[in-house]
Q: What sequence folds into this?
């Protein structure tokens, strides 16, 4: 490849990596330890040939150049020359255009045209061992030079403490893509903004956005007319997903995402990004070459050593993720890429935190999870990252680390999910375990100096059944994914309430709504940080599909007509969120002790059997949990108050005896077995119990009583 340019050049700087806009032009810098030559290609339009081919200078392992006179919006890409020896881990191919690992925007989606996105000859018998020498410049999306300037209008993070947080996990496109949303820009960052008033009404104060990094759509899904809807296939760690923008002009996704963040902040709602740094969309040894593979494969990926095959020792990839490859975060260059990306999203894009997909992979030392990994240490000491919310999905294909992440990290509590599901549907031997989950999972978090709010409690999330489907299906129904229903988990702890799928049976319909209300109570009245899956508050269904990762259609999108069809569940959810906010005792920063906390000689938490006797946790058939919380001062309430909870998941009704305190009377606030209007009464409309010594609790119901003067 020849150096060919009319542009005025200078040597450039090695830092920062990426394309850095200056007044006089743009500095380009890219890392590659094993490359022989690196060329920067500039383009006037997406489809036109390169106007300039510029050979970069090398300083150590950084390749760099300063190009004078170019501005924001400039299209560019790289070609990297070097050895093509997949057996040694080297996959350089000078015929393939590559996107910048630090690109802040990408011009389009990768499409497989004539197999040009592969660096190898797909028709060769030896597959990836044979280089494809066809040029693909004309079909590859281009990186875009971006100006970081933006009118933030004085934006500041709402800076909500973890104990106050109520998270709403949602999908940028799926939230408004349905025609019933009625927004001007459905399925986009701008469309999402139009629904912020709904989120305010609901009462949540943080959105956890499923991946919005630019992602790769696998060809095998496109051939089936499916898609990588969830987006867990990142290819650009600095670039917002293009398809969620208006696509009105090149790079508009950056400004539109910033606008979304700004407007959410104005509404007092924080933005948490679900980030996927454990693998990329380039797949395994037979996957495409879009970026990292062609720039420095051995640096960015963990390669599987095969000493028995000398010529293929580093041909294959470690697959700890189940997605074909694993990012080599033990390499400082790959780790710095992750850290630089995180800092960029905080400093430049103003996000408030991150949820790390398969986070245990990022904390590997010599291939094993380590509590004292360099990644953990670096994040904890970083002056930018240690101020934002850090949430782990604490497992991967080979390890389950719930409760084992260091202080400063919160975790998706998978044990809360599984226990809650089993207890709610009436499984035996779950009451004692459920008591631990209701009170912040001290058995998992207290010993490491963490707090109850470090437990991110959830019953449902994107990965699995929706709340409606959890109580409508005993089995998964993933036929639409065209994998013969083999994909998705078989262990869902679901219960169809007597009929599989949709039914006109009024009794089953009522029971399902009762179970949904039970789940909402279980989630929102527990110690810890609650996370609600979008649409659960209006009974969104995926028709029994528990792995809708490829369903970019009405199957997965939120149907806003559900607000009219199920206003009772929405109203119940709104009231439950408001109740949580009104009671500090439900948002404790410390674990319960079961000890007296004030002069009234009443413990902060007390557990009871149905007759005020001690609970027999060891009994397999114990399916009723009774406990009392003692609190002090709540909005509109002066002095001491008590909340008595009865979680009766037995199919039979239970008569529960109530504690007696001098001058205290019991009022009913919640009874999930009741019809709308009676199922959740506000504090000012609380109903005095006729009998103050005992209360009748319906089967499969949750009752909340308020004790006060």
A:
């Amino acid at each position: 490849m020849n150096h060919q340019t009319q542009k005025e050049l200078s040597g450039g700087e090695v830092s920062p990596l990426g394309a850095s806009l200056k007044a006089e032009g743009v500095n380009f810098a890219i890392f590659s330890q094993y490359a022989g030559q690196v060329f920067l290609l500039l383009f006037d339009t997406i489809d036109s040939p390169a106007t300039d081919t510029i050979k970069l200078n090398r300083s150590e392992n950084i390749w760099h150049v300063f190009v004078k006179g170019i501005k924001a919006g400039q299209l560019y890409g790289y070609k990297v020359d070097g050895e093509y020896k997949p057996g040694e881990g080297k996959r350089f191919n000078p015929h393939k255009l590559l996107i910048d690992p630090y690109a802040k925007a990408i011009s389009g989606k990768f499409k497989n045209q004539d197999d040009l996105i592969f660096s190898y000859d797909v028709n060769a018998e030896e597959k990836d061992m044979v280089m494809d020498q066809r040029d693909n410049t004309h079909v590859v999306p281009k990186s875009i030079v971006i100006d970081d300037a933006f009118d933030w209008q004085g934006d500041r993070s709402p800076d909500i403490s973890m104990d106050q947080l109520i998270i709403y996990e949602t999908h940028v496109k799926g939230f408004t893509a349905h025609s019933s949303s009625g927004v001007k820009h459905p399925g986009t960052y701008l469309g999402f903004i139009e629904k912020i008033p709904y989120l305010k009404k609901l009462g949540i104060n943080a959105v956890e956005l499923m991946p919005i990094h630019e992602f790769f759509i696998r060809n095998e899904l496109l051939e089936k007319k499916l898609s990588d809807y969830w987006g867990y296939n990142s290819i650009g760690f600095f670039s917002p997903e293009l398809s969620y923008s208006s696509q009105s002009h090149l790079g508009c996704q950056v400004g539109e995402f910033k606008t979304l963040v700004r407007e959410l902040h104005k509404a007092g709602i924080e933005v948490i990004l679900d980030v996927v740094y454990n693998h990329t969309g380039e797949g395994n040894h037979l996957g495409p070459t879009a970026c990292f593979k062609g720039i420095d494969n051995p640096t960015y990926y963990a390669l599987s050593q095969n000493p028995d095959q000398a010529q293929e020792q580093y041909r294959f990839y470690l697959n700890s993720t189940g997605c074909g490859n694993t990012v080599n975060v033990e390499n400082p260059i790959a780790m710095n890429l992750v850290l630089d990306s995180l800092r960029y999203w905080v400093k430049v894009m103003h996000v408030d935190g991150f949820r790390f997909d398969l986070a245990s992979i990022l904390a590997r030392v010599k291939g094993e999870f380590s509590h004292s990994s360099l990644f953990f240490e670096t994040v904890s000491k970083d002056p930018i990252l240690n101020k934002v919310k850090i949430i782990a999905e604490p497992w991967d294909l080979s390890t389950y680390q719930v409760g084992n992440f260091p202080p400063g990290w919160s975790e998706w509590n998978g044990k809360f999910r599984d226990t809650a599901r089993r207890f709610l549907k009436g499984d035996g031997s779950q009451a004692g375990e459920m008591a631990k989950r209701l009170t912040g999972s001290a058995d998992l978090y207290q010993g490491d100096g963490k707090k109850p709010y470090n437990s991110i409690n959830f019953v449902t999330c994107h990965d699995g059944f929706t709340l409606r489907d959890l109580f409508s299906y005993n089995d998964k129904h993933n036929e639409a994914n065209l994998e013969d229903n083999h994909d998705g988990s078989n262990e869902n702890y679901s219960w169809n309430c007597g009929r599989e799928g949709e039914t006109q049976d009024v009794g089953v319909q009522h029971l399902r709504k009762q179970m949904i209300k039970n789940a909402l109570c279980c989630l929102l009245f527990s110690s810890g940080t609650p996370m609600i899956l979008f649409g659960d508050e209006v009974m969104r269904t995926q028709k029994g599909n528990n792995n809708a990762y490829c369903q970019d259609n009405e199957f997965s999108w939120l149907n806003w007509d559900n607000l009219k069809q199920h206003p009772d569940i929405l109203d119940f959810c709104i009231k439950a969120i408001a109740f949580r906010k009104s009671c500090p005792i439900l948002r404790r920063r410390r674990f319960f002790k079961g000890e007296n906390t004030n002069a009234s000689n009443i413990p902060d938490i007390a557990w009871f059997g149905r007759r005020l006797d001690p609970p027999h946790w060891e009994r397999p058939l114990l399916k009723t949990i009774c406990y009392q919380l003692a609190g002090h001062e709540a909005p509109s309430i002066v002095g001491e108050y008590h909340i008595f909870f009865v979680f009766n998941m037995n199919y039979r009704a239970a008569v529960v005896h109530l504690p007696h305190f001098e001058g205290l009377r019991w009022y009913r606030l919640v009874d999930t077995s009741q019809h709308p209007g009676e199922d959740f009464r506000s504090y000012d409309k609380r109903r005095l119990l006729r009998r103050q010594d005992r209360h009748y609790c319906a089967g499969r119901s949750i009752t909340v009583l308020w004790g006060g003067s």
In short: The radius of gyration is 28 Å.
